[in-house]
Amino acid sequence: MKNILDTLFKPFRALGSLFGKIPWKTLANWVLVPFVLTGRLLVKLKRKIGATAFGQRLDKRWMKILTWSGEKPESINVASSLIAVFLGLLFGFVVMLVVDPSNAVSGFFTILFGPFQQGMRSVGDTIFYAVPIILTGLSVAFAFRTGLFNIGASGQLYVGAFVAVYIGVQWDFLGPTHWIVACIGAILAGAAWGAIPGLLKAFRNVHEVVVSIMLNYVSIYLVNLLVRSFIFNPTLNRALGPESSAHIPTLFLDNLFPRSSINIGIFITLAAVFLFHVLLNRTVFGYELKSVGLNREAARYAGMKEKRNITLSMTIAGGIAGLAGAMMFLVPGTYIRIVDVPLEQGFTGIAIALLGLSAPFGVLIAGLFYGGINRGGYFAQSLYREEIVNVIIAVIIYFSALSLFTKQVIAKYIRKRTKKDVQLQESKGDVG
Amino acid sequence: MIVEVFNEIVSMLSYVIPVMIALMIVALGGLFSERSGTINIALEGIMVMGGFIGAMILYVLLNHTELHIQLSVFIALIVGALSGMAFSFFHAFASVRMKSNQIISATALNLFAASVGVFVARTVFGYRRINVDESYRIDVPILSEIPILGDLLFKNAFLSTYLGIIILIAVIIILYRTRFGLRLRSCGENPHAADSLGIDVGRMRYAGVLISGLLAGLGGAVFVIAFQNRFESDVRGFGFLALALLISGQWRPQRIFVISILFALMRVIAARSDSIMGIQAIDIPTEVFRMLPYLLTIAVLAFTSKTSKAPEALGEPYDTGKR
Known about the structure:
The complex is a heterodimer.
Chain A: H1 2-21, H2 24-51, H3 53-57, H4 60-66, H5 72-99, H6 104-112, H7 120-145, H8 153-170, H9 178-204, H10 208-230, E1 232-233, E2 238-239, H11 253-256, H12 265-282, H13 284-294, H14 296-301, H15 306-329, H16 345-355, H17 360-379, H18 388-401, H19 403-418
Chain B: H1 2-35, H2 43-64, H3 69-97, H4 102-124, E1 129-131, H5 149-154, H6 159-177, H7 179-189, H8 191-196, H9 201-228, E2 230-232, H10 238-248, H11 253-271, H12 277-282, H13 286-303
Antiparallel strand pairs in B: 1-2
């Protein structure tokens, strides 16, 4: 038996040792230079501005926000995120070279500069597509910061989307408050859906990841059932679209970004980013949530209600994802379809949270980046199938998973160059 | 009347068995990974990879060679399994060697497989799907003449059905009757103790994840060949259904076998509710049947949390420093 297994695994072991033999560190040294420099530049820039009279007038808090907080370990974290992005893009480029070498360069730059293909219009579209992703990213990041892994953003988003569209279709008596009520409904539905894994984690000690995965599928079939029963458009085999009074308003943005799909969802998202930051970093409640995440037993010993806090963390994360559902479907031309696989937005949110280092402003930037290459993939469609963007995102997630390793490499590099000791900081995304 | 009911049940089971086999193979794969202590929620992605490459191979063999159809199927199954194994290497590398978060790397694999499958299918074939629409059912001579049992197992059967039964028996033997199985399980329960006895935890976990990749890849190919007759960008959530099966079966192969029948039955009822008289009469929406396996799994988790038989060290990267 052992022999059979041995021969079976031989090629893999060989592959494994091959992986080990590649001079990663030498390679990394060269690849890393620009990233470490960028990371450091951000930190230095912050200090420079902070030293001037203008900078001192700004509150220190705001400086922290601008540069994703400035201690050295942070800049290493930023660099590791940038490396993951770089490697993802590199992989995408190699795939494009393999598929069609003649168009690879132009295709690659089309993807990279997607937001600027059609001027303000595509910038607006980039923001529009980034909004739900930023929100799901925030949802996942919020859970990360409180020690939980919200892989169920997809399901929470979907349930939220259904409630939003249901209100959008049925409650047209609401007038100008129609879309606000629909959004609130979505938040509540997502929160309720997120509360289930939270409750089970808090009271039955069940791993939230497994429950969330199961709930992702339950949500799909539940929404299919509810759509079929209440808001179905049988001729097109999809849900009815919300009334125009339930569409997220565009305000002045449609003049600023002519012919794009942008709406004030971006302002709502910015508000969510800000609230996320304030709640976690400036309130007692947020402090408790983080403490419970770091060490449940210690938090209980310190007199915090750990069960309540775990449940609330997941509830809030679910609410943010539910809002993402409203942002996705309370727009003209997007309909809930009868599907049987979870929406990818929930999983992309994980990538965004990791890239953004679970910091609200990091998530915002990472989400806009995703929106950009997503649009880029759309514009590059004539050259390459747009799934290439998801391939890139998947590779980025993979290298985000390896971030601990990347960070060690960077720290070693800095140590070697500056002869200074470098403290590594556990990124807030490194749970479990 | 009795004959009719009997025929109904037999025709029903002829749909249930292929689904059950695909689910069971993948869940047994997950079993190897999780008993060695590594969470593998990449089953879905590995299935997609196995199904996708299996379908490509089968497509080429069917359309460009004169090979016997069952031989082609066999080759496609093997290649699908091996590609699943190769793909799962990345999960093993990240979660065992690099000690990174097992859920994140598995999510990356899921996303990667789904997008690469569609990307390549669209680039090469121009569509999202690869059609391998053929009849792969076989009648085993002589054995199919046996009443009842012959109708169930040997008439209109798939090659994969027998493969699945062999795998089930092999898994039980390997896991509980060999040194390798004992060592693998010990790495999932208490890796530090295992290490102190000279077992290479990393190697065992590599083995666990790679075997899970092998079986999940095979399951993906079985899914494409015996259930869907085409590859179409995903495996309809079967990978996660297998994960649910693994948990509901409390990480025990025998229970997985029993519950796989139940889960497959739900799925078949949902897919064929319009042709089953009994279901039509009570008028339950098909979505309910699709939901039930997942709800059941959540219920099992919630009510057995105190007596859960999950491997003790599941999900924890092995760190010698924590001893």
